[in-house]
Amino acid sequence: MKKASVVIVLLFLGLVFQGYSQTAPKDFFAGAWEISVFDTPNGDAKLKTTLTRTNGKLTGVLSDANNPSAPKMTIEQVIENPDSISILFFAEGTDVNIDLKKKDVNNLEGTLMGMFTAKAKRLGKP
Hints:
This is DUF4488 domain-containing protein. About 15% of the residues lie in helices and about 55% in strands. The chain is an alpha+beta fold. The protein has one domain (about 30-125): Lipocalin (Beta Barrel). The longest helix has 19 residues, at about 1-20. The radius of gyration is 21 Å and the shape is elongated.
């Protein structure tokens, strides 16, 4: 009976500690992404970015995946929501936004400037 009491107490303490332990939320949008934009006037485009969290905000640069020597575009702002993200940057004299929503763990779907279909896939592990 004494062993059963010890086991029950240990199980109870394990449940209590598990209930109070907190894990840091996973930073879903941070990391390397390849963003494909389809049917633009210049054809399909692929952009690569690595979003990093600095002082609580996501930042990064966008680069042309097909032309590594092309100038990089600084991301001006990233607007985060639990299931979506908006990336704002300046390109070819225009303010541009890419709005993306979670499709699954490694994929996002949305639009560039509300006109062109955009898809993003995670490069590497989530």
